[in-house]
Amino acid sequence: MRYSAVHKQETRTRVIAAAGQVFRKEGYGGAGIDALTKAAGVTNGAFYGHFKSKGEAFRTAVLTGLEELRQGIAALKARQPKDWLTTFVGYYLGYKRTCDLGESCALPSLSPDVMRADDETRSAYTAELKRLIEEVAVGLPEGEIPGQSETRREDQAILLLAMLSGGVTLARAASDPALSKRIADVIAQAALTAIEPGN
After folding, report:
1. What pLDDT does residue 42 have?
2. How far is CA 12 from CA 15, 95, 149, 182, in A?
3. Which run of H or of E encompasses 185?
4. What's the burial of 14, exposed, middle or buried (CB within 10 Å: 0-12/13-18/19+)?
5. pLDDT at 62 over 70
6. Rounded to two decimals, what is the model's pTM?
7. End-to-end Cα separation, the chain, in angstroms
8. How many CB atoms lie within 10 A of CB 40?
9. Which residue in 127, 83, 109 sits closest to 172, CA to CA?
10. What is the DSSP letter of 83?
11. Angle 119-138/54-79 helices, nearest 10 degrees?
12. Are 57 and 15 in contact (CB under 8 A)?
């Protein structure tokens, strides 16, 4: 039986989404092909019809996760151009800190495995990370030094993403809910202060 192009694309989308959830929960080393196919509701044959290896599925899940973050930020900036940053920081350190690990942000949950990944995955991650940094930077206030505003905003975007990602990582790892919330509050305040115009 031959499947339509639409069915194949729907299956691929489902496999990528399931892989992203499994890799976030189990890590690259803990996620076997059986877990990936079970989560996606497909056979091993269907999985290998879309990906040559677990590594390729991981790379695709990582890139998809970073792209979803970038698109979410772009949409938020379009809806709330003046106060998108406060809303984003609150959402990231609120819901994205407390949601199921399978639904968490790809940046803190998948980056540790990317460090150990092959060169192709790391290069693809780097390119997507640069796009994410540029997306965040475009929405930040301009600097006061002429000619340095773009570099300054990109540096602040890197700082913001590192603070949020690291903050969520610490807050998620803490078993004490009060400490987790405290970490989130401290990071939120520090992130917003660091990005204020003139800093």
Report:
1. 83
2. 5, 27, 41, 40
3. helix 177-195
4. middle
5. yes
6. 0.87
7. 62
8. 23
9. 109
10. T
11. 0
12. yes
Q: Which residues of 133-168 are buried (b: 16+ CB within 10 A; e: fewer)?
A: bebbbebbeebeeeeeeeebbbebbebbbebbbebb
Closest CA to 131 of 156, 110, 154: 154
CA distance 191 to 34: 40
**CA dist 59 to 20, 54, 111, 118, Å?**
10, 9, 11, 9
String of DSSP letters for 13-31? HHHHHHHHHHHHHHHHHH-
**Domains of the chain and any CATH numbers:** 54-192 (1.10.357.10)
The predicted structure's pLDDT at residue 76: 96
Please write the tens of the pLDDT for every residue from 154-195.
Answer: 999 999 999 999 999 999 999 999 999 999 999 999 999 988
Q: How many residues does the chain have?
A: 199
User: What is the reported pLDDT for 145?
Assistant: 52
